[in-house]
Amino acid sequence: MKKKILFVVTSHDKKGSTGEPTGYYLGEVSHPWEVLHNAGYEIDFVSPQGGKAPVDGFNLDDSVNNKFWNDKTHRHKVENTLKPSQVNPKEYVAIFYAGGHGAMWDFAENVTLAEIAKIIYESNGVVGAVCHGPAGLVNIKLSNGKYLVEGKKINAFTNEEEIAVGLEKVVPFALETKLIERGAKFEKSGLWQNHVATDSRIVTGQNPQSAKSVGEAMLSLLSR
């Protein structure tokens, strides 16, 4: 049986009350996908609502985005995502939360996804996330009652980056602030710098520029 990794993408397609479209950020799926797919892992996709996931950052001039979008198998999977209730966490060696602003509205409160991630992690699996994807980590609690991120080096889209894109008053919460409240040792670099934190089988990246590096760090952990 092939080793499988579960990619989580948002179902949410609007930036709050602005009416502006959003979704998962294509490069934050395609770049980790390429690294892990090339290493022989089978990738499945899940979203909070299942079905077709809305896409943002749709830049097919990026050769990796183009490769992913024209891969019939995975294009079909991301346009027909599993519902959380359809996922058997025991089938997966890792879970990866892709970013895109939509994640801020539907990742944190999804208890089924949090339970899936907890089971994968407590089965010695790897948890990865990039940019706004770590919104999916803020409410994951382990069997010992502690938050997954407590005491761990964690990275995500920063408060400064949210201000830089003018959405700090639109998103439902400040991701960096929430992770710190949950006990994370938050790391960060300057705007749009590639930054990845790895701690205790958790890999988190700051922004789209960090997406490939998150995939590489996950692969490194999985290869041990």
Biggest sheet statistics: 6 strands, mixed
Structural class: alpha/beta
The fraction of residues in strands falls at: 15-25%
Helix content: 25-40%
Coarse shape: globular
Assigned CATH architecture: 3-Layer(aba) Sandwich
Order of helices and strands: EEHEEHHEHHEEHHEEEH
Rg from Cα: 16 Å
If helices are DSSP runs of H or I spanning 4 or more residues, what is the number of helices?
8
Uncertain ranges:
none
- How many β-strand runs? 10
Spatially, the strands of the biggest sheet line up as 3-1-5-6-10-9
- N-end to C-end Cα span: 19 Å
CATH topology: Rossmann fold
What's the mean pLDDT score?
97
CATH class, named: Alpha Beta
The CATH H-level superfamily is Class I glutamine amidotransferase (GATase) domain
How many domains? Answer: 1
Question: Can you put this structure into words, describing what you see?
Answer:
This protein has 224 residues and is α/β, with parallel strands linked by helices. The protein has a single domain, classed as 3-Layer(aba) Sandwich (Rossmann fold). The protein contains eight helices and ten strands. The strands form three sheets. Strands 3-1-5-6-10-9 form a six-stranded mixed beta sheet. Strand 9 and strand 10 form a beta hairpin. Helix 1 (26-38) crosses helix 2 (63-69) and helix 1 (26-38) packs parallel to helix 8. It is globular, with a radius of gyration of 16 Å. One of its GO terms (molecular function) is glyoxalase III activity. This is Type 1 glutamine amidotransferase domain-containing protein. It holds the Pfam family DJ-1_PfpI.
